[in-house]
Structures are given as C-alpha cells and as structure tokens.
Amino acid sequence: MRLQTKMSLAILPLVAVTIFLVGFWAAMTATKVIRDTMYQVIESELKHYIKSTISDLNNTLTKYGLSEVESFVKEYQQQAITAAKEIRYFNTGYLLVVDESSSLVFCSHKDKQDVINYWSENFPKIINQKTQFVRGQKVLNNKQEIYISHYYLPWKWTIIYSISSDEFSAQARAMRSVIMIAAFLCTVISFLFIILIMRKFVIQPVAAMKNASLNLAKQRHVEKIPVKTTDELGTLSRSMENMAHAIQKYQNEQTEWQSQLEQKIKERTIELQNEVTDRKQAENDLLKNQYYLTKAQEIGMIGTWELDIQKNVLIWTDENYKIFGVPPGTDLTYDIFSNCIHPEDRDYVNKKWGAALNDGSYDIMHRLIVDDKVKWVRDKADIEFDSDGKAINAVGCTQDLTELKKVEASSLRSKERLESLW
Q1: Which DSSP state fits 110?
Q2: What's the CA gap between 16 and 131, in Å, rounded?
Q3: What angle do CA 330, 332, 336 make, to 5 degrees?
Q4: pTM
Q5: Predicted confidence (pLDDT) per residue in 148-191, tens digit
Q6: 377: which strand partners?
Q7: Of 372, 354, 362, 306, residue with least CA distance to 333
Q8: Between 162 and which of 147, 240, 343, 417 could a Cys-Cys bridge form, CB atoms 3.0 to 4.6 Å apart?
Q9: Are 227 and 205 in contact (CB under 8 A)?
Q10: Among candidates 227, 406, 377, which has minimal Cα distance to 303?
C-alpha cells in the first residue's frame, strides 16, 4: 500500500471526526449566540425606546417643573405610547406597558385579550422585579416566548418586550443545518486538500495570507505578502495586497474627510449659536418694544386699529377694546364700531367716514356710549387706496378725550361763575 494511501486512511477519519465535533460545537455555540443576540437586540430596542422617548419626555417634564402635574404627565405618557406604536417589532415581537397597579397601559399584540389573560397573572411577579433589565421565558398559546422587562421608576411603568422563541429557533436550526453541511463538505475538501497539495505549496502561503488578513483586520500596515508562486495563491496574494493598499488609502481619505467634517460641524455649530443668540436678542427687543407700546397706549389712553375695508374686518388693540367698553377678543366689524357711537353723533361719523373713503381725510371728535356713560374720543386714520382709487385698508388711532372734556367743562363753569361775580 502506497504511503499516500496510508496517510489518507490515517488522516481521513481524524479529519472527519474533528470537523464533525467542531461543527457540532459551532452549531451549539451558534444557537447560544443567536439566543444571546436576540436578547441583546430586544434589550437594545427597549433601551432605545426608554432613553430616546420616555426618558426624554420625563426630563422635559422635570425641566419645566411639571412632573407632579397630572394632566401634563398623562399627556406626555400618551406621547410615549404613540411613539411605541411606531417601533419596528420582530415578526412575533410585541410591547407591553403596565403601571404599578398591574393595569395594562399599552399592548401592541394583535390578540390583546390572549395576552392580557396570560400576563395579568404574571404582572405582579414581574413588576416586583425592580432591577435594571430582567430576562425571562413563558408559554403563551402553547408557544414558548422570551421577554425582557424594565421598571421605569419616575412613571412607575413596567415595560415588557416579548418575542416567540420560534423566531430565533428557526434561525438556530437553519444555522445548525448549514454548519453540519459545511462540516461534511469540509471533511471531503480537507481530505482532498491534504492528499493533493503539499504543505510547502499550500500551508505556508495560506499562513502568510492569514497573517496579512489579521493585520488588515486590525488596520495594520500591509506591504507585501511573502508568497512568490504564480498560481492562484500567488494571484490571491497580489489581490490581497492591492485590496490592503486600497483599504489603507480609503482609511486615510476617510480620516481626512472626517477631520474636515468635524471642522465644518464645529464652524456651523458656532454659526447656529450666533444665530440663536441674535434671534433671542431680536425676540427680547420685540417684546420690550411691544411692552413700551402697550404702556404708552395705556398711559396716553390711545388705542390703535386697522380695518380691512374690502372684507369688513376690524382689528383693535387692547386699549381700543377698553376705550369702547367691548370685551377683548370680540370679532369686530365696522357695524359693531358704529353701534358704540352716541346716537346723536352716528350720522355725523358715518358721513365723515364715507367722505374719507373718497378723499382719504379722517380726523374727527365724537361721543360714545359705554356702560350708559358718555365718552368723548378723537378718531384719526390713514386710508390706503388701490390703483383704481378704491379704498382698501385703513389704519388709525382712537384717543379717549373724556377727562380732557371734563376739565374743559369745569374750566368753562369756573369762568362763567367768575364773570357773574363781576
């Protein structure tokens, strides 16, 4: 029997058993990894929802001192529930939110009643586990499920993410099948590889490429792979060298690009900060000017108004409402204004207003009836005309002259008394 055949008979069983054991171990490890990965993915989804939605909303409540205001808390909790509806769940995954009294706040499962019937018996046990994240398993409708729960203390919510074990078990079974098939193929390929290829022409070049791959994976510099053959391994070595050079060039370009991007982000951040500062200053100036204008109108008893003549829509400032004795916020028209005028002055005012719509001149004094009392006011306006000479808009002011009229009347009476004495 030839040495080559003896080596084949000696090595083949060892290789086959070794690869089968490795394949079996890899299959079991893959199953565990898939399960752990599934838990990690679920936990990551749960953490992201809690951090980016619930915690952010609660922080907003705390920031503005609203965490004890029940109406605001419920509104923000409703926003969190709305956000939960937008989460991308696994095929069999669903989310539960339970309050401290074991009452269901939210459930994304389509068969809510089945879920409620099962979980209602388990809520107290899970709610009492007030640790960071709790993993567990259960059976719902004769199907195994895994879940992760988290107790969110500020809102006293227990948030549960559950998914069917079949969803990752199917992947695990598929992975085991693939691994076992791969193990069988590796056995055959390894046998042929050992028989047909000598160590000198295979093992050493592969080891050299392996080292190059490791260096490449660790982002180390790769100059030249020590494989001098001109066969496929040599071609592969040259290709790996080219790939390594291309990756290193890309990494250098990426580093430079990232540096430029960070600089641009920094510059833009400064610009935005300046814009925000300028905007806040402008808003403060505007509020201050509005305050000064309001105080000036209040002190001078002068209200301003604007009338859209085409739409017959009248707008008053707060001081104008006060002068006319009309509740602030009342929808206004010219007719409402006219009804406030003293009956004896109404025709006079309407006549002057009609004339103003033609010549643009409107500056009159007249009386008002406010709460059964007579007020004297002065109305003055600028009227805007379109290209056809038609009045379209008027902006004016109303000054309360009542006190001035009282002073004038008092002065007149005093003068008359003095004259009567002489």
Answers
A1: S
A2: 48
A3: 105
A4: 0.36
A5: 788 888 888 888 888 777 766 666 666 667 766 776 676 667 66
A6: 366, 400
A7: 306
A8: 147
A9: yes
A10: 377
